[in-house]
């Protein structure tokens, strides 16, 4: 089953790039905010564009981070009740959770596309950037989140099967 290793490597690389983008965006947000505070309160000469750019970076950061969190299983989960259930039911509940995340990310993507269409050729007033850049992360994050949720479901079966074979071979 070499295809699952290829899939896992591809997903991990894509998510690694998204995580790197999140790190860069966080540094940009911090840099812009610190510069704006300095310019406003020390030099009394604030910029007009800094809040828009920081907001744009924050939206990209948030939606990419949600998608990466799906792949890494880093979202808040209440496992107390799941852990009380028999193994097959608990596993089914995990699949339902991944499917729910995929459906949610599809909804984010779907309505993000609507917002892009509604924004048309509008521009942000201070920076002059296209307003659609505020909604594009919904599409990118939505697609990545869906891919990650489905990838988690596919790779979970393979990982569990491999683990069962390894345990059988050891014993």
Describe the structure.
This protein is an all-alpha fold. It has one domain. 80% of the residues lie in helices and 0% in strands. It contains 5 helices and no strands. α1 crosses α5 and α2 (50-72) runs parallel beside α5 (136-170). The chain is elongated, with a radius of gyration of 21 Å.
> Secondary-structure element sequence?
HHHHH
Report the sheet with the most strands, covering strand number, pairing sense and barrel closure: none
Helix content: over 70%
How many strand elements? 0
Distance between the termini: 22 Å
Radius of gyration: 21 Å
From the spread of the alpha carbons, the general shape counts as elongated
Helix-and-strand structural type: mainly alpha
Model regions low in confidence, pLDDT < 50 over at least 5 residues: 162-168
Strand fraction: under 5%
Mean pLDDT value: 89
Number of helices: 5
Number of domains: 1
Concise synopsis of the structure shown:
The chain has 171 residues and is mainly α. It has one domain (2-170). Helix content is 80%, strand content 0%.
């Amino acid at each position: 089953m070499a295809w699952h290793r290829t899939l896992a490597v591809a997903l991990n690389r894509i998510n690694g790039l998204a995580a790197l983008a999140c790190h860069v965006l966080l540094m940009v947000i911090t840099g812009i905010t610190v510069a704006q505070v300095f310019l406003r309160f020390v030099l009394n000469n604030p910029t007009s564009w800094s809040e828009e750019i920081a907001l744009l970076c924050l939206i990209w950061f948030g939606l990419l981070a949600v998608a990466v969190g799906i792949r890494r299983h880093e979202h808040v989960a209440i496992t107390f009740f799941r852990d009380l259930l028999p193994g097959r039911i608990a596993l089914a509940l995990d699949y339902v959770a991944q499917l729910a995340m995929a459906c949610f990310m599809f909804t984010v993507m779907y309505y993000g596309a609507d917002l892009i269409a509604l924004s048309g050729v509008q521009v942000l007033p201070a920076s002059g950037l296209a307003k659609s850049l505020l909604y594009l992360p919904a599409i990118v994050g939505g697609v990545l989140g869906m891919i990650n949720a489905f990838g988690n479901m596919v790779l979970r079966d393979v990982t569990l099967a491999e683990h069962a074979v390894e345990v059988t071979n050891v014993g």
